Amino acid sequence: SQDQFNATSHGAMAMVIISLQTFTGMWINAFIASVLCIAWLKKKNFNSNEKILLVLGCCRFWYLCITWVYSLFSIIYPRYFYVYPMPQLFASIQSFLNFSNLWVSACLCIFYCIKIANFRHIFFIYLKVKIDRIVPWLLLGSVLLSLVIGILIYSIIDEALCSNHNSTTQGNFWKLKIKMDEHIFPVFFLAGFGFATTFMAVISSALLLLFSLWRHKCKMQTDSGKNISVDAHVKAMKSILSFFVVYSINFTCSILTLVYATKKANPVAFLILVFQYAFPGVHSLILIFSNPKLEKTLRRTLSCVKCKVCMR
């Protein structure tokens, strides 16, 4: 029928747009991970900033990969997607990688804040001295907490599906009927907690760095020379403010995703999905241009690719 044809064409168009965003984001994050791995193998040494960027690049690469497969099955092959235990398995893995992505990127903002901001409080001084030892534990804690949430989401959705399916005959398809009831509310609560926690970490880091910069500039007003500490503050502030803008959009889209989770597909939900797919790629691109080593390698790579294309 005409309606079925329109639905198929819209699904194909949506898949094309999502695929372009996904593969672009995967390439950007694979670039970050590969450059850092090569540098690690060459110098056998890894600073805290590079550790965070490597974990973040890997998390985002696999998150985009799994989410693309999820979209492929749910849009183009829905009958194959709603087979036990595919819905809860995809939701669990996707949640684990998404929360790892959000919390590790929040750890990056916290790291910048502690490393660059100047405060005389004894606890802040302790963190500044110990930050390189704390970073691996922060990364491990973020991954483990994400894993726990992923397991919880699997069990919650599995219980919801078991209470909603109509038949247990082998070969029947399980339909995922998301309802705002006692089974699905914990999923929304966990997702909201994760989004709010990371967003607050980014806001706090930006405000602390801004306050530190303002205090430092007030102290250095009598000095007409260029100050290295001020330059470091300004550079970090540019990075974190760009993070803040991107995070604000992503946080808004994430909350709207929870709002539209119980409703049928509509243009607003698709627009939210587009923004969410763009987040890992755009934020990682900002990270590349904030890091001199990554930026230099990217420019060199693009120039080599351009030369090879021109030679053809």
UniProtKB/TrEMBL annotation:
Its main location: membrane. SUPFAM superfamilies: Family A G protein-coupled receptor-like. It comes from the Eukaryota. It holds the Pfam family TAS2R. GO terms for molecular function: bitter taste receptor activity; G protein-coupled receptor activity. This is Taste receptor type 2. The chain crosses the membrane at residues 12-41, 53-77, 89-114, 134-157, 184-211, 240-262, 268-290. One of its GO terms (cellular component) is membrane. It is found in: Membrane. It is a multi-pass membrane protein. Keywords: G-protein coupled receptor, Membrane, Receptor, Sensory transduction, Taste, Transducer, Transmembrane, Transmembrane helix. It comes from Rostratula benghalensis. Belongs to the G-protein coupled receptor T2R family.
